[in-house]
Amino acid sequence: MTSRFRQSTFAAVAIAMLLAIGIAACGGDDDNGGNSGGGGGGDGGGGGKTIALLLPETKTTRYEEKDRPLFTAKVKELCPDCKILYSNASQDPNKQQQQAEAAITNGADVLVLDAVDVKSVGPIVQHANQKKIPVIAYDRLIPDQDIAYYVSFDNVKQGRIQAQTLLDKLGSNGDGKSIVMVNGAPTDPSAGDYKKGAHQVFDKSGIKIEKEYDTPDWSPDKAQLEMEQSITALGKDGFQGAYSANDGMAGGMIAAMKSAGIKPQTRPITGGDSEAAAIQRILTGEQYSTIYLAIKQQAETSAQLAVAAAQGKSDPDGLAKAQVDNGAKQVPSVLLSPIAVTKDNISDTVIKDGFLTTAEICTGPYKAACTEAGLE
Description:
The chain is of the alpha/beta class and about 375 residues long. About 40% of the residues lie in helices and about 15% in strands. It has a seven-stranded mixed sheet, sandwiched between helices. Strands 7-6-8 form a three-stranded parallel sheet, with helices on both faces.
């Protein structure tokens, strides 16, 4: 590391610390009704520890509806006296930096960090390490930093599964078929992994990718605009299917198709995250597939590691069996497997595991589709 880089990094951390002091009460919601006192990297005692959960955005519904409550419930089960400092950065890396510094200032003993931009969180990790506060990378791998654990899914495999599901639906190995491909945010390494995995399948097939986009912020609105541009360029009959890296963007792309007078049922489209709205679209045929990620297992495993780390213990249950190279070290990791979901296996995946209920899915106009699919 050059002297100039060290100086700029330390300066950035110092500025962020000063900002954090002024916003300590504004960094996000505290699931305990107030911030805790004391410093991070405590004495390794049992209860009374403080765990900071820092999530990246709200446009993807899973974070507020699933990750946060599941993580919180597991922490409370394992450590009733532990405090949780919660913040959501709303896709703003500067805001996340301030929230992390506020958490450190307010006594966090461990940071569970899902980075908005993994390239910008180095100062957060470095400051935490200086305070002997472990950092757990949640969902998105933080490169080139000394992090304690990484908990996520096999993201390259997920991209392969998404692509193969679409390829199978189109038939004949995609020969003579064209698609529009909409990837996730270029600042998210998971999006890059999905894209890599999908290309591993598409590039060996007979399919032609007519238009491809990397979509800032995973924005459904931007994905809708990208699909509108594709339809304008290719014509209504210029593509036979679409790849979307997640459900939110798939929703935007489907809206664009409808607006152009294209029936989504005639253009299979993928997704990811198993959002309730996506399952409803799958039941009506507007979306072909999604990906079920065992977010409950991810959140609860992260909570187990966080409680142990806050108490100064190593991985007590041997959860982190994998090793992932992040450029700085071999990071002890938990990598979960993604599962493709179509109309045929909704009941055996998201419903069976309690991720979604029929009451959440089978509302109003979707009741008939649920009955037809045997969900009610």
